[in-house]
Amino acid sequence: MAPLAPAGAAARPSVMQLVFREKGALYAAYMPLLTDGGLFVPTTRDYKLGEDIYLLLSLPDDPQRYPVAGKVAWITPANASGGRTQGVGVRFPADEKTRALKLRIEEILGTAISSVKPTQTI
Predict the structure, then answer these.
(1) pTM of this prediction?
(2) SS3 of the chain: helix, strand, coil, percent, to 5
């Protein structure tokens, strides 16, 4: 059993690897409505709004892995209506490195970003 953190100590943010092999999957997860961008992360783990989450992100046809220190912006619970996947929306931080990542994602998605095709996001 893991030791408990001392009172007042912040829990370490969870680290999740998120690998997008196809543009369609990236489109379904990307959240352009958030000012600095964000992604839907399928997970069965319980999170709270505003909780820190650290992503190691891999994009289609891109060998680079992108570290993102985001925050939980919304939660899709288990058994959500419309058969939506359980998980969390992660808001990207407002920094230069992440702005470059947002532009890279939008470059990969190209014209698909303005599609009316449903996504896992809001």
Answers:
(1) 0.78
(2) 25, 30, 45
